[in-house]
User: Fold these one by one.
Assistant:
Number 1:
Amino acid sequence: MADSVSAMPRYSVVIPLGKRIDDLGKLLAEYDQALNRTGHEYEIIVVLDGPRPNVEETLREACRTNRRLRVLELARAFGESAALAAGFDAAHAELLVTLPAYYQISPSEITRLLEQVSGDDDVLIAVRWPRAGGPFDKLRRATFHALFKATSGMRYRDLGCGVRVLKRTVAQEIILYGDQHRFLPALAARRGFRVREVELEQSPNDWFKGRYRLRDYLHGVLDVLTVFFLVRFTKKPLRFFGTIGFIAASVGGVFTTILVVQRLFFGVGLAERPALLLGTLLIVLGVQTFAIGLIGELIIFTHARGLKEYAIRSVFQGGSVERIARAGPAQGAAGASGSRNVTGLV
């Protein structure tokens, strides 16, 4: 491994260590070899998501032989999103690279990924292709990505891949929490950054040896719904809750009106009429749902001065035809379409 490090590396590689870890010593060596072939200076930041006694000695040995390697240990397990955020905060380079602590792509493909970085791209995300997996794996991935596309309007082929390249401005604009790291491309596109997918060869060691529980699938669906709100209704909650409330109250109002007309003009009794209870319930639920949206709008309004609704990509100054500033994200763009047991739920 390399034994020197530049004061200002071109790449800061962040590797979060969570529940799943492959042969870490071998993996770090292969990552390091691939990064060396780029010909640029780099640093590797390994973030331990809580104490990991089983890998600490491996990391100590790696640090003794590679001065480019730094290890951050979080006080407890906060999740992969928090680990990535900690790595981004500790990074020095303007280009941030995220790599998983287990095999997803062939390590030799890292060089090819970094060669694709251009000035117009804010985020590059890897797509494992051709993708291994059986019929159930394909169905699970297709269902997840179809649900994500239906709710967010964005199309990506491999949201489960943790291999990405992003500019520092992206990390500064996006707040990662919970399991939102998986949806980093969508959150970046929402902020106006340019996102592009790059097909890379899947590693033959990309095997998931566990079994997904029903809770894992439920969490995946809830995460997609969370992104749905973040992408579409963060700044306009009344549009979502108000629409649902209006529909519910309208249906309830129609039911109740029909029953009242029948009682007043046709002598039909209201006793033991389930439709009356249903209509009243829909009206109450509709009003409450609308009120939730209205409260959300009031909260957004009171904090509006601290919210930035725009992002500046570049500035041209009089007398110059050159771009003289790059102060924020670019025009948003989503990705592009996408078997051995595969990594990750998606």
Number 2:
Amino acid sequence: MPRSTSELYERLKGQSRAVAYELVEPLTSFLTVARAVTGDLDRVLIMVTITLRSSRHPDFRSGAAFETGEDAALPGFGTNVRSVADSTGIPKETVRRKVRELVAMGWVVRDGNTLHYSALGYEAATPVREAMLRMYARGYEVIRQVEAETAR
């Protein structure tokens, strides 16, 4: 087994062409599902960024039940349009417009300038989460395969 992330990276890099299909196919599937659910890949990236802030919150991580309903925000630290634009490279005005769309869809809740992932958004994103988990599970299988082959 590799002793570090960098060692694992180097092993995968050495096998990148051999495992390209196994790694790219689940990513393509994830992006296709995410685009179908959200209607737009910029929305996907914005939602993932907002989710990232939520997923660091202890109440979100605990798996405790959360409020449901159209305006229910999930536990999270929140973020703002400027932070999303800075971290994704999407122009600020595009983020602002896409956030307005996500708020109208009920997937994001705005509290002043702070944006939170909503319970409705979480539920709507179920197929996206499932595609992401399948992608990571497949990646794990590929890593195990590369490890087995390099151990021989």
